[in-house]
Amino acid sequence: MRLTTGLLLSFSLFAFLAWSDDEHHHALTEEEIGSVHFATSCAKTTEASFNQAVAMLHSFQYEDSGQAFDAISLQDPSCAMAQWGVAMSHYHGLWHNGDMAAGREAWRKAHDIASANSMTTAREKGYVDALGEIYQQDGKDEYAHAQAYEQKMGTLAAAYPDDSDAAIFHALGLDVTAPKTDKTFSHQRQCGEILQPIFQKQPHHPGVAHYLIHCYDNPVLAERGLNAARAYAKIAPASAHANHMPSHIFTRVGSWGESINSNKRSADLASQAERSSRNGEARDQRLHALDYLEYAYLQSGQVKNAKVVMEEMNSLPSPPGLTHTGNYAIAAIQARYTIELAQWKQASELQSRTEGTPWAQAITWMAIGVGSARSNNLERAAQAENTLAGLRDATGKQNNTYWANQVEVQRREVAGWIAEQSGKHEDGLTLIRSAAELEESMDKDAVTPGAITPAREMLAELLLLAKHPGEALAAYQAVLKIAPKRFNALYGAARAAEESGNPSVASRYFQELIQISVGEERPELTTARKKVAITAAK
Question: Which segments of 271-428 are extended strands (E)?
Answer without folding.
Answer: none
